[in-house]
Amino acid sequence: MLQTEEYLDVTQCAVDIGEEASVADILLASDDSSSWWILPASLVFNVVLALLWILLRKRSRKVKTN
Known about the structure:
single chain; 0% strand
């Protein structure tokens, strides 16, 4: 929650001053290092979803011919 409030404070200040601040500039300006886990967590989440899809998907049945 603090990250969001800090981000909004920075963007509000940029708007009040009238500066042209891009999102990348604002994100790089914040010195918060608590978001380092987002990339590994998203990669792990994608791998788990892929494994679940492979293991739990409905396999097509072979056509039974007499």
